[in-house]
Amino acid sequence: MAKKAKASARKKAAPKKRAATDYLADIGEWMVPGVHLRTLAEKKGMFAGAASSYGPIQEDVQFRETLAREYNMFAVANEMKCLRVHPERGCYDFTQSDEMVAFARAHDMQVHGHVLLWHISQPAWWTQLPATREGLMDALSQHIHTVAGHFHGKLYAWDVVNESLEGDGTLSPTLWYRRIGPDYCDHAFRWAHEVDPDVKLFYNDFAAESKCPKADGMYKLVRGMVDRGVPIHGVGIQAHVSVENAPPPDELAANIERYDKLGLEVQITELTVSVDPDNGTKEERLSKQAQVYYDITRVGVEAKNCTAVITWGLSDKHNWERDGERDDYVGTLPWDQRYRQKPACYAMKRAFMEG
Ligand code: XIL
After folding, report:
1. What is the rounded distance in angstroms from the CA atom of residue 48 to the CA atom of residue 260?
2. Any residues with Cβ below 6 Å from ligand 1, and which?
3. Digit-coded pLDDT (tens) for 274-316
């Protein structure tokens, strides 16, 4: 599927604040068995995506089946990170990531690759390199050329740089920043583009959904790259959010729209919605969580440059953010631990239908 074939007729205005809905009592077409997220997304020229690491796909039949049935985009959660594909300098291992890409292709899912450069997934060998700009440029260029080259032609998008910004919107003092300088992001994108000119190159970050210094810092970083002619094609808004501190839909919509003016695509790349366990009954929490899933998905559907809504996982059974074992636990993802659709899942479907 090409860039969201969004009708120019699509409404551009940010959605108005809707009255709170009781997502538990809500019955509608989105609940009809056989109505899958991917079909609804496709109708809007979009992707409904989920991220996974290797384990659940390998070991859990229900996980695998749900992923293939419901989603048309797959994000590789860990297996393309430097720690996994390039643990020792010059020693690459693509065994698991290749299997995952093959799985996605076999089920007609596009792949969102994650990630070429992320300081958190940085094996120790990086710090043992010669402490020169050239030494680090050379290693980074080799890493990106090898990894992006390996997947040449197989991915829809790459997160080229992940989470390089501080809360105040300035670049973090990572190894690359300190030794190469603030232009390290430009180089990373150029090297990726050299080796795979067709894959879409994204900058991806968290806590930059709504109005805040970090969202402005991200916009400034990306606009600078566009101005300098750096090959950047998209922005990933992670959206690890909470019910209590959810991004106001109009602010999220305005944020996505300003990237459209730069000619860039946006994807919601890592959506999860946590809910304070002490904030109401389990039913109330499920309903509030669904509202946030609805709002974010609907903003994405209505934004003409947003091409995907991707959740970071799909079922609370394999949930990176799982905390606690309470019986009334409400995990952050759209499917529960037994692969039943939560109100959040129906809310996403409804948003794809109504947006
Ligand atoms: C997380 C994975 O989900 C975990 O399994 C892993 O242990 C740590 O990384 N933002 C990102 C992702 O961009 O790469 C992170 O993934 C979650 C936060």
Report:
1. 20
2. 53, 77-78, 162, 238, 270, 320
3. 999 998 999 999 999 999 999 999 999 999 999 999 999 999 9
CATH homologous superfamily of 22-321+328-354: Glycosidases (3.20.20.80)
Atom of ligand 1 nearest to the CA of 240: 18
Single pTM value for the model: 0.94
Tell me how far the alpha carbon of residue 53 lies from the centroid of ligand 1, in angstroms: 10
User: Concatenated DSSP letters for 105-168?
Assistant: HHTT-EEEEEEEE-TTS--GGGGGS-SSHHHHHHHHHHHHHHHHHHTTTT-SEEEEEES-B-TT
Counting from 1 in the atom list of ligand 1, the atom nearest the Cα of 313 is: 3
Q: Tell me the domain boundaries of the chain.
A: 22-321+328-354
To test the pocket of ligand 1, the residue of 57, 160, 319, 320 to mutate (highest count of ligand atoms within 8 Å of its CB) is: 320
By annotation, the residues acting in catalysis are: 163, 270
